[in-house]
Design a protein that fits this description.
Radius of gyration: 22 Å
Order of helices and strands: HH
Oligomer: single chain
Helix content: 55-70%
Structural class: mainly alpha
Distance between the termini: 43 Å
Length: 87
Amino acid sequence: MADPSKGDKNYVAKSIGRYIDLGLQFAIAIGLGVALGWYLDGKLKSTPLFLVLGVLLGATSGFLNIYRVVYPPKKRKRTKHPDSYEQ
């Protein structure tokens, strides 16, 4: 990885690009939730119900996506349990 103190423009672009990507994914998740909720409200004549549910579902999925990127799962080391019967 390049050192940011040396003025590497690719490093800055990659760093900014990560956050732009997360922001776009969050906005698209909410937009898809709104669109799906609006469509279902129009079909089922249930004015704001599915729109609100779509916004909540989209926002939740967007937040989960950001959480998974910011806090990636830790890799566990496989160790043999002392009581295992493997030989």
